[in-house]
Amino acid sequence: MKVVIQRVSKASVSVDNKIIASIQQGVLILLGIEAQDTQVDIDWLSNKIINLRIFDDQNGVMNDSLLKVNGDVIVVSQFTLHASTKKGNRPSYIKSAKPTLAFPLYQKFISTLESKLSKKVQTGEFGAHMSLEIHNDGPVTITLDTKNKF
Fold this sequence. Notes:
The protein is an alpha/beta fold and 150 residues long. The chain has helices at residues 39-51, 66-69, 99-117, and strands at 2-15, 18-23, 26-32, 53-56, 62-65, 72-77, 122-123, 131-145. The chain is 24% helix and 39% strand.
């Protein structure tokens, strides 16, 4: 699994010009799923995300986690995170999991985050064409890949 985590002051997701998710302080997570991903990847990634110290403390230093600030979350499925651009100019998405495999893992990732945060996680619409409005705070943008844990 690969993610792009953006610390936001606010963010929203729209489908067909209708807002389907909206948050204030928190993170917007773009999630890419590979065919080899498992619950082990979900557990490692969700723990890492909720404990990353990317929020400012009272002294303006990034010492606080999503968990500590009780931040909100939007998760958006993004198969293009696994694009291969080694050959030619048209990206290949061969490493991205097919929807029949990706959707259940996407749902498990969301439910795992909800359990760890003890709150609802908002989402995009899996497989839909979405528009994202992101107010990246900082900007702070972090990438994580469960295939590169160490």
